[in-house]
Specification:
374 residues, alpha+beta, Ribosomal Protein S5, domain 2, Alpha-Beta Plaits, 6-stranded mixed beta sheet, 4-stranded antiparallel beta sheet, 10 helices, 41% helix, binds alpha-D-galactopyranose
């Protein structure tokens, strides 16, 4: 019997806790109501037809001949098949799928993890593989590391797989323990503002940050031999190494340790409805990402700085990997339209680029519907 299913995989926001996931730190993300929608049909034979309506591109892949493609977007799908069939030796039925999306690409809201999670979850369902959420998270990491070349942490895929409507996730990325926190922001909304720039070398600059953090940990552990990850190092211990580490590596480590603390402080403030204090932590996070971690860019900095003129915005910072993409802003709902007009004009005047701005709601991460069997 042929099956037809519809998978919706959401993007994610991250309220705070940037670049700490691969350092064993804690993050505060949520899945959102912007999604990739993938329709799967099982078919006979060995050949899968994959069509992206968003990119207006398609390709075929034979399940007996899986190898990396030179065309990057194809690897998001091929990587999952390689993991399941070649590495895990699982038996998969051929399928056709059609991918559509209202999730902006390259905006730092995780369209790539959403696509990989959606593909893995759909194949899981079609073939009744009974993969657990943790297994899907590991598959997505494997594809990102080995097929896409981004040595990312687990924040994005964890959030997409476990995200729930109206819940933030306070996630410890070292041991994957987590708790849901009610997302109650009164009359404030999350407004994402997309710079519509994606600077070159973002992947390699990201991977450099991963290496610099691991270098800091190795040097500190030569003396202390006890830290499993960078966020376990206390700031006073790091300071003992200030003259041993290069300034750059010291700054990276300092940011990570401070940002991890900000995540916990933020969860605490949000659960006590101290939103203004949480907003201040968002600004601190941005300035750390800009000055110590050096993953911001002039367009993101402009958007964050512009918000400081308006009391209706209580927090703003760059979000995700950086070097372009979005800022996340906590803004009074009734001011959204006026503010979008103001900032769009100022940004166009400054950079000659049109931005996109949209509010997001917190929604379920993955949903799968059986459409019918035929
Ligand atoms: C990207 C990565 C995540 C995380 C963020 C920065 O989105 O995929 O794992 O490291 O950057 O917080």
């Amino acid at each position: 019997m042929r099956k037809k299913i519809l998978v919706e995989a959401s993007g994610r926001i991250n309220l705070i806790g940037e670049h700490v996931d691969y350092n064993g730190g804690s993050v505060l993300p949520a899945s959102i109501d912007k999604k990739i929608i993938i329709e799967f049909h099982s078919v006979s034979g060995e050949e899968c037809n994959i069509k992206s309506k968003t990119l207006d591109k398609r390709f075929k892949i034979n399940l007996n001949k899986i190898s990396k493609s030179k065309i990057q977007w194809q690897n998001y799908i091929i990587g999952v098949l390689y993991n399941l069939i070649t590495l895990k030796k699982l038996k998969i039925e051929a399928f056709n799928c059609k991918i559509e999306s209202n999730l902006p690409i390259g905006a730092g809201i995780s369209s790539s993890s959403a696509l990989i999670c959606g593909i893995a979850s759909g194949i899981n369902q079609l073939n009744n593989l009974k993969l657990t959420n943790d297994e899907i998270i590991d598959i997505v990491s494997d594809v990102e590391h080995n097929f896409i070349g981004l040595m990312g942490g687990i924040m994005d895929q964890f959030t997409i797989v476990n995200g729930k409507k109206n819940k933030l996730i306070l996630l410890n990325c070292q041991n994957r323990s987590f708790k849901y926190i009610n997302s109650d922001f009164n009359n404030y909304k999350f407004l994402l503002i997309n710079t519509n720039v994606e600077h070159n070398l973002a992947n390699s600059a990201y991977n450099d940050r991963v290496k610099e953090c691991s270098e800091a940990l190795i040097i500190i552990n030569k003396k202390y031999k006890k830290y499993n990850c960078l966020v376990e190092v206390e700031e006073n211990i790091l300071n003992e190494f200030k003259s041993v580490l290069t300034k750059k590596v010291y700054n990276r480590a300092l940011f990570v340790i401070q940002e991890n603390k900000r995540t916990h402080d933020s969860a605490n403030k949000i659960s006590k409805s101290k939103l203004t204090e949480f907003g201040e932590l968002m600004y601190e996070s941005h300035y750390g990402l800009k000055n110590l971690y050096e993953v911001s860019c002039k367009e993101l900095d402009f958007l964050v700085e512009f918000t400081s003129n308006y009391k209706e915005i209580i927090g703003s910072r760059m979000m995700g990997g950086g070097f372009g993409g979005c800022t996340i802003n906590l803004i009074e709902e009734k001011f959204v339209n006026d503010f979008v007009d103001l900032i769009s004009k100022a940004y166009l005047d400054k950079f000659g680029i049109k931005l996109n701005a949209f509010t997001v709601n917190i929604d379920n991460g993955i949903t799968i519907k059986n459409i019918n069997e035929f």
